[in-house]
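From the pipeline queue, job 12 of 40. The input is one protein chain; the requested action is below.

Action: predict structure.
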Amino acid sequence: MTESLQSPAEPLKFAYWVPNVSGGLVVSTIEQRTDWGYDYNKTLARLAEDNGFEYALSQVRYIASYGAAYQHESTSISLAIALATERLKVIAAVHPGLWQPGVLAKLVASADVMTGGRMAINVVSGWFKDEFTKLGEPWLEHGERYRRSEEFIRYVREIWTSEHAEFGGDFYRLHDFDLKPKPVEVPGRPHPEIFMGGNSTDARGMGGRVADWYFMNGNTPEGIQEQIRDVSDVAQVHGRTVRFGVNGFVVARDTEAEARDVLREIIDKADREAVEGFGSAVKQAGQSTGDKKGMWQDSEFADLVQYNDGFRTGLIGTPEQIAERMLEYKRRGANLILCGFLHYHEDVEYFGRHVLPVVREMEAAELERVHA
């Protein structure tokens, strides 16, 4: 078996969850000085790119659910954020089944031209049945959702890179199509990057076969390493390489006690009804897999208060503790940390001022040891 280990010479990359959905990044009644509106997010994007963040991931919700009453659509706010910044790369989460892939590919290609090559997509196979059925779209069985997503990715990649695009699948077809304008030609990037996530066997196989990046829910370093190994094994068979991102909720404070107190308050003030409703919905999605292996299947109540298991990554404590934890994920093969925060403006600035410099110092020291 192969293992895709992160090179010590390559710095960790950082992304942040765009709070384009109301309610913040934790399902809790704790005060969150975070807003879902555009003006707040425009300021946040500029802060983020000035504090070490390379990517911004816009989540996708279509209807009010589990504490998220309002939502800005992901592709539109991603483009708006990119146009408000100079360097930040934006990732828009998109659902096959709710997007026709050629239309989505056209939108992203145009947005990529407008932003100088800073657009990407995160293909989400879907866990929330109501978003499909209330829009009049069929809800597919788990494996079929991933099969559709794989075709979606192959179609989009083909239309972005071919002058006479052809694709024939069970869900999508493409006939001698020449998309113009094509996305921007960026060195080392043949087309806008394609992210996806998951934990199931279906997701791991799909990630190895077609994804550029594979996002993982929060987990221990050992749990992350296992997923990286599985996806990399599939990728190797297909002559590919995949890069990996880990979700984590960051509570960085001057002392560990302060950080732990914040985490305790978040969980103590959890919106129990919303957390339990979310937990029931996502566990149902994973239990529909053949091997009962999927995202959130071993998540406990406290884990689900941060809806991508961000607490499990353990980025709670002092800047030094968090930096060391991040480097442990890098040693296991992670290329990127996807961060959520409680009070975004303040916490992103604190991250850039106090956490990121320690990460870079530790990376430099580790590189020196490797070459000693």
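Job complete. Residues 27 and 305 are 5 Å apart (CA to CA).
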